[in-house]
Amino acid sequence: MERGPGSVEMLVMEKLFAAFKGKRVLVTGDTGFKGSWLCLWLTELGAEVTGYALPPEGERPLFDLLGLRQYMRHVDGDVRDLDHMSQVFAETQPEVVIHLAAQALVRLSYEQPKQTIDTNVGGSLNLLECLRASDSVRAAVYITSDKCYENKEWVWGYRETDELGGRDPYSASKAAAEIIFSAYCSSYFDSRPGFGIASTRAGNVIGGGDWARDRIIPDCIRALEAGQPVPVRNPHATRPWQHVLEPLSGYLSVAAQLLHQPKKFGGAWNFGPPVGSVRTVGELVAEAVKVWGEGSFQVSPEANAPHEARLLQLNTDRAAVDLAWRSRWGVDETIDRTIGWYRQVIRENASPRAVCQNQINDYMGTSR
């Protein structure tokens, strides 16, 4: 690789991520949107990646579009199955574990609360049990959500020490997963030498290759591709939008640091964009239509819609001070990169893998 006009921070990140070369890394939830991006990035860094998750689901799953089975090992499995997951740990002897597997949709949690809690709480508990029994793992990143906080809709960001809670099944499941994480750290992990574990919290991630239902960008693309107006349920709701590579870079940064200083970099971490990245849903959709090049949107309020938070922001001071991590792409570039991915893949027939690789290289400040 030749270095482009990147910053010193990007060079530091590149050197830090060199820690993954040759490492055995287990990723739960590898077939999901974030998991697919993460596994591509890890394979590009030279890691030996094993994924554990349900088979890819839905339309045009990114995992399949990226051809990841050619570059890593994937095991079909459910995090609710402790025996099977324990078997995979024993077979692969991972050195690094990144736990992404989850039921990740707030609205679906209202329809399927038990499945959501069984997966997000029970599945995470199973992961912790596998870590407790493992002698090979040196670093683990346990990913929850910004929605683990008791959301008071403050205008300032939540800190890692703020109160946990949730009024919907999804948020409650993430808060519960964090409480169990803390208990396992105090009871088992804090005293284990040579082992580090951290929980990470992020939300409102967008990026190319997401096709989940009831998410604003996939809804936009499906409508634009079909030549129909984009339906917008709540145009005035605000979100701190961030590109998928932003939190993933945070997870990788924490994991790499845990390998070197496991106790210093443990605990909870927030990863999110600066306050200036807050945009309303209406503003996001209007910009998405502009980047796509044609189309329109219409407000379509939903009667008796389940509650969704209108405002939730994170304070990322700890990541900035202790990890030298910061958000790299502003909201305008985030939208441009996201919609640009779909435009290139759908309208220009570009390789999804090549587009993702190019975006990772741009984010890292490198070019081939």
What does this structure look like?
- This protein is α/β, with parallel strands linked by helices and 368 residues long.
- It has a single domain (5-364), classed as 3-Layer(aba) Sandwich (Rossmann fold).
- It has 13 helices and 15 strands.
- It has helices spanning 8-17, 33-44, 62-65, 82-92, 106-111, 113-133, 169-189, 216-225, 245-260, 281-292, 317-322, 331-347, 352-364, and strands at 2-3, 24-28, 48-53, 73-76, 96-99, 139-143, 196-201, 205-206, 230-232, 238-240, 242-243, 267-270, 278-280, 297-299, 366-367.
- The strands form 5 sheets. It has a 7-stranded parallel beta sheet with strand order 4-3-2-5-6-7-12, with helices on both faces.
- Strand 6, helix 7 (169-189) and strand 7 form a beta-alpha-beta unit.
- Helix 4 (82-92) runs parallel beside helix 6 (113-133), helix 6 (113-133) runs parallel beside helix 7 (169-189) and helix 8 (216-225) runs parallel beside helix 10.
- The relative contact order is 0.15.
- The model is unreliable at 1-6 (pLDDT under 50).
- This is CDP-glucose 4,6-dehydratase.
- GO terms for molecular function: CDP-glucose 4,6-dehydratase activity.
- Keywords: Lyase.
- Residues 26-337 form the NAD(P)-binding domain.
